[in-house]
Each structure stands twice: as C-alpha cells, then as structure tokens.
Amino acid sequence: AKRTGLLQSEGWMSVEPKIRRAILVRAYLDTLPGKAPATEEELRSFYLSHNDERHVVHVLSMTKAGAESAKKRLASGAPFDKVAGAMSIDLSAARNHGDLGWIKRGSVVPEFGAAVFAAEEGVLIGPFQSKFGWHVAQVKEKRSASIQDFEKNRGQLLDEAHDLVNAPKRAEALKALKDKYPLETDPTVLGLDQTLEAAPGDVRRIAGKVAGVNISLLELKAFIAEAMAGGQAHSLSAAAKQRFLEILSEDVRLAAAAEKAGLDRRPETQAVLWQTMRTAVYNGFATHYLRKLPLSEQDLAAH
C-alpha cells in the first residue's frame, strides 16, 4: 500500500485520523464509571427474540377511501406491483413497486410494525393508519433470526451495544471538555464552496482547530457526507458546515482526553489501533488493486 502511494493520498489522510479518534474515544469512555455493556450471551438472547423478519408488500394512500379502493383491486386479483405502481403515494413505489423486502419490527414506524408482524402469510390486511397515511399490506414470507445471523452481525451488534451504554457517559464528559478544549473555526475556509466534493488542496485548508488538532476541510466534508448517508449533499452553507464541525470536534476533545490520560500508550489500545488500521489499509489496497485489473464489471460481480 505504501509503494502505491495509497497511504499518502488525500483520501487516506482523511480516514486515518477518524479511525484513531474512534478507538481513543471508546478507550476513554470505557474508563469512566457507569453501566457495563451487555454481555455477548445477553446480546445473543435479545437478538434472537427481537429479530424476526417479514417480507412485506404494501400500498400507501393519502386517504382511507383510497386504501380501500386499492384493497378491492388487489382482492379481485390485480397484481400487487401494478396496483402499487399506479396508486401508492410512497416515493419508493416507482422503484420497488410496493415491495419493501425483508423488514424488522424496529425498522418501521410502530403502527406498521404492529400490523404486519401480527399478520398471517398471504393475507391482505388494512386499511390501517400510520403517520405516513393509510396502508394496505401483505406478508409474503416470514423468517426467524438464527444463531448464524447473530454470528454474521456479531461485531456490529457488540459495537452498537457498547455505544448505547457509553452515550450518557459521553454527554457528561463533553460538558467539561467543551470549555477545556474550545473550537476555533475559519469562516473563510467554511465558505469556500457549498458542496461535499473534495477539491484540490482541501487537505491543507484548515476548517477548525480544537485541542491542538487541525481539522481539514477534506476531513470535514468526508464527515458530513457520512453523517448525511446519501441525503442532501449540496448547497451546504458555511453555517451548516459550522454545525457539523461542532459535532466532529466532540470526538477530537474526547480523543485528546484519552491521550492526556495516557490511554494511547496502553498495549491493549495500541493493539486495537494496529489491527484496525491494518484492516483499513488492506481494504483500501484491495479496492485500489481491483480497480486496476483489466476485468469487466460482469466478471468482478461474478467473482
């Protein structure tokens, strides 16, 4: 990876501090008093009892009458995809024709979850109301969570449980650290453009400084893009970037507190840093290498 220049690229320069910071933040929060995270056994038991899934198709209408009309068409044998495409006000219907795929109870609004998770397979249910409107739905299939599902998602689930326990400790710690490590910003840099597209030189443009750490415009843009997760990625004013910079500065403050406490020098922290960085470099290099191979997209997909 070093020989290819990957670790000197602007992209890696925005990734590396983020990885280091996340590990130091967790190390610091773990030293603070508070509730212990759930054990793996407790988490497995909760996961298996709360992760049943349903394959659901639905039609969303603005009115109950509209939903009843859609239900009549479906009951008379009209294909679900045709009815959803013609009548559903769900913005995703044009793409998925009313097929929501596999959903978990907690991934949808409570009213919708309660209705579809109580329904039998193949039975047309509704109209029932949620905050989005009136629904007619059908459960195509059911499936229960398995030990294999848990093992597949084990790392992410343990991380989420850890973060949930650390959330109140994080909020309490930041009350003192905000005054100890004030944020200095550069309004000129924040107002250079209104997009999240990386521009030449962004890595050298300092958007803010906190706890002796410079936050580049490149790193800030990458943070905003990830936080928005595919949402609006344009027309971001300097004031909007300032708000995101405030959020980003929280992790910088916590990481600074971790370093002051000497947590970055502990063998267990260094081991996690090394392993996480190694994985990130491996993934980055693999992507870089695959892009250079003279293979078609079809071949890559098959592989």
Helix and strand topology:
Blueprint: H1 10-31, H2 40-50, E1 53-61, H3 64-75, H4 80-87, H5 93-96, E2 99-104, H6 110-118, E3 124-130, E4 133-143, H7 147-152, H8 154-180, E5 183-185, H9 187-190, E6 206-210, E7 213-216, H10 217-228, H11 238-260, H12 267-292, H13 297-302
Helix pairs in contact: 1-11, 1-12, 3-4, 8-11, 10-11
Q: What is shown here, in short?
A:
Helix content is 56%, strand content 15%. It contains 13 helices and seven strands.
Description:
By secondary structure, this protein is an alpha+beta fold. 56% of the residues lie in helices and 15% in strands. The protein is built from 13 helices and seven strands. It has helices spanning 10-31, 40-50, 64-75, 80-87, 93-96, 110-118, 147-152, 154-180, 187-190, 217-228, 238-260, 267-292, 297-302; strands spanning 53-61, 99-104, 124-130, 133-143, 183-185, 206-210, 213-216. The strands form two sheets. The chain has a four-stranded antiparallel β-sheet, with helices on both faces. A three-stranded antiparallel β-sheet has the order 5-6-7. α1 crosses α11. The longest helix has 27 residues, at 154-180. The two termini are 23 Å apart. Mean pLDDT is 87; it is low at 230-234.
